[in-house]
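In the previous chapter we treated chains in isolation. Here, by contrast, the input contains two separate entities that must be folded as one system, with a combined length of 452 residues.
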Amino acid sequence: MHREIFVTTGATADFQDLLANAVSNETLQALSDLSFTHLTIQGGKLGDYFQEIKPENTRGINIRFFDFNKNGLQQEMKACQAREGVSEEGLVVCHAGAGTILDAMRLGLPLVVVPNVSLLDNHQEELADELERQGYVVKSDTKDLAAAIKKSTQISRKTWGTSTNERGGIAPIADKLIGYEEEVKGRLD
Amino acid sequence: MAEISALRLLVAAIIVAVTTAFLRLFYILPATWGSHKHPHPEYPRTTPAHMVVVLGSGGHTAEMQSIMRDIDPRKYMHRTYIVSSGDDFSSSKAFEIERKIQSKCTERGSTTTIKGKNDLVVGFWDIKVVPRARKIHQPLYTTMFSSAWCLMGCFRALVETARDSTISPGEYPDIIITNGPATAVMVILASLVLKFLGVAPAWSMNSVYVESWARIKTLSLSGKVLLNLGLCDQFIVQWEILAKAINGRSRWKQVEWHGFLVE
């Protein structure tokens, strides 16, 4: 059955280490052991580098590389979701960009977060640490990617945003600041 | 007999001017000494409100889209989005936000109103464009000028926003919602200057700043500036550990934590 893993290295900074480890023999072997069938990589400007290091033996895994998708990565992530009779639950591996992490968690996908330590601002690493501590994601560095992938498919994870019927976001806070009271809603309706 | 010299007069005049300015500043500056310093004359409020939303770069705007999800357009009948010039992404996101919040008013059907068109149920929304505070890779020494230019643009945007108000023409908006971008600081600064000068009433343009979900241990630059200068009425962070760290440091600079505002 189709089982897809999606690796995204981020749109703004090149993350060569992550790409190299995503197609390393060790990672491909781990993916093959876990019966993954497809590996999709978003690699920005690393296209030439990918052609250089592209493995000969992919261990039966179908590898696809693309640079950007200006419409976002929803499509690629959704391909990792489980669908009855079609695909098994896959996995997303991403750099620690908040937007990408949120996108994957909203879709309920298992997630391995690999912070790009070469970036100066380390608040992304703090985000990855805290999310791992709270059980939402598995954090990894580039060289332990294979082990992190295994771990991520095995452990039970906390699901993001168990949707409630309550109004969320800024709405209740803004209403309070403006002076709207709850029952006012009825009058406005 | 003491003679009143020109110098003495000048000194006295300066002292009076500085004291007045200081008192005025103390009067209009928000939050730091207790929230809701200037309640709206009508409380509880039953009339529609005018909301300004500052949209910045990609990440901030995507987060704002999520934060805005449950805003009721029947309450905030006029919504003005402030975007930076050349930022088509944010302009299209403004429409996305509108689509989301209008879709919750089922009596309207499934279409989304376009900007500048009034609707009986979901009101009106428009976009104001301001110059960028800082372009990516812009050298630091020119940032001062572009920031000043941006600030001028923000004055203009707010004055135009008041002029174009569909709630009550000429009246300044009720609330400004911002998150991380540098433009947010400029818009809030401009709103405070307008209040300082008495152009806008002190209870108008309540500002809410929501720190990015990505911030766990430290504030972003915009957040630091706004919190340390005490410029926002409401300062919200999304992680409890960050709230505890800041609130434990000083009792003058307090932030609020209401859980994750992103979905």
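Residues 4-162 of chain A form a domain with the Rossmann fold fold (CATH 3.40.50.2000). Chain A has one domain: 4-162. Compare these points with the single-chain example from earlier in the chapter.
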